[in-house]
From TrEMBL:
Name under which the protein is recorded: superoxide dismutase
Keywords: Chloroplast, Iron, Metal-binding, Oxidoreductase, Plastid
UniProt KW tRNA-binding keyword: no
One Gene Ontology MF term: superoxide dismutase activity
EC numbers: 1.15.1.1
Assigned protein family: Belongs to the iron/manganese superoxide dismutase family.
Organism field: Cannabis sativa (Hemp)
Length: 354
């Protein structure tokens, strides 16, 4: 703490000493530290003897307004600064953020996909990039109406029918990466079976044609983005349009690609498979050879078991949504027969009351 210096603290001029002690013989006694200090201090103290001034407290304007801070001036006095009440309207105190979303690990060890995808890639892709999306989103949603929402609801809400809000990119990238890790497995690749294979052959002509279209979509996505296999049901390609009446042609598998963080959830599609074509996904292992990375992904890494499970869940969810729409339609537009029954019941009840 700095105290302004004024002349009142030096009422008696300082006079330097004019005499010094004689040179002493160099002996162990005269070379001791305590002896040397006493010889240096004594003449100065004798030359600057003044009348002791009574202690006066520091002006209040000089006391720093630090909360909970203690100062110690000398061994006999301790100054205490009053503790201030902290004013804070945010839910998080200081710069600490209460995390809502956590970084999920891949469903296998980070080296499990080697030699096709290196642990070094996972260390950066999952350990750095994916982690940053989680940390940034948690900071963005603290104290907002988004706090407490599911990740899917945050994505749809912040997509805002194409007028994207700031938290969207981090939220969508968290979901995309979780989905991407679960789209792969050690010893993956090969060919699917069952209903998934039947739908692929129905909607693309053959499995080989599907693979070719998927590779093309991933390779031709300009810049950063994703390629997807999705299950499309009774929806349009415009996220804010009213859905048409369901037809069997609408219920099919489609391949789509999306820029940056956008995913099929915002189009009301059901994602089944994805590949990350951001450069950080493959550059450490493949440099600029994106097509090689895509081919290896399809041949050695895809978890068709996961894709089949997602298809089953998507069809069940789509069927449930259609039933819910039918129930709401019936509630809003009751049939004529129901109206007649309600009228008869009303008349009957009135006659009984009379």
């Amino acid at each position: 703490m700095l105290v302004p210096i004024t002349t009142e603290y030096f009422s008696t001029p300082f006079t330097p000493p004019t005499t010094f002690p004689k040179r002493l013989p160099l002996t162990p006694a005269t070379l001791s530290i305590s002896f040397l200090i006493s010889q240096m201090v004594a003449p100065v103290a004798a030359a600057t003897t003044t009348t002791a001034r009574p202690y006066s407290p520091l002006p209040s304007s000089l006391v720093p307004s630090c909360q909970g801070l203690r100062g110690n001036l000398g061994s006999t006095r301790t100054l205490q600064w009053p503790r201030k009440e902290r004013q804070c309207t945010r839910k998080a105190s200081f710069n600490k953020v209460t995390a809502q979303f956590e970084l999920k690990p891949p469903p296998y060890p980070l080296n499990a996909l080697e030699p096709h995808m290196s642990k070094n890639t996972f260390d950066f892709h999952w350990g750095k990039h994916h982690r940053a999306y989680v940390d940034n989103l948690n900071k963005q949603i603290v104290g907002t109406e988004l706090e407490g929402m599911s990740l899917e609801d945050v994505i749809v809400t912040t997509y805002n029918k194409g007028n994207i809000l700031p938290p969207f990119n981090n939220a969508a990238q968290i979901w995309n990466h979780d989905f991407f890790w679960e789209s792969m497995k050690p010893g993956g690749g090969g060919k699917p079976s069952g209903e998934l294979l039947e739908l692929i052959e129905r909607d693309f002509g053959s499995f080989d044609k599907f693979v070719g279209e998927f590779k093309t979509a991933a390779a031709t996505q300009f810049g950063s983005g994703w390629a997807w296999l999705a299950y499309k049901t009774n929806t349009l390609d415009v996220g804010n349009a009213e859905n048409p009446k369901p037809t069997e042609q609408d219920k099919k598998l489609v391949i789509v690609k999306s820029p940056n963080a956008v995913n099929p959830l915002v189009w009301d599609y059901y994602p089944l498979l994805t590949i990350d074509v951001w450069e950080h996904a493959y550059y450490l292992d493949f440099q600029n050879r994106r097509p090689d990375y895509i081919s290896l992904f399809m041949e050695k890494l895809v978890s068709w078991d996961s894709v089949s499970s997602r298809l089953e869940a998507a069809k069940a969810q789509a069927a449930e949504r259609e039933l819910e729409k039918e129930r709401k339609k019936e509630e809003n537009n009751p049939s004529d027969s129901e109206d007649d029954e309600l009228l008869v019941d009303s008349i009957s009840d009135d006659s009984e009351a009379e």
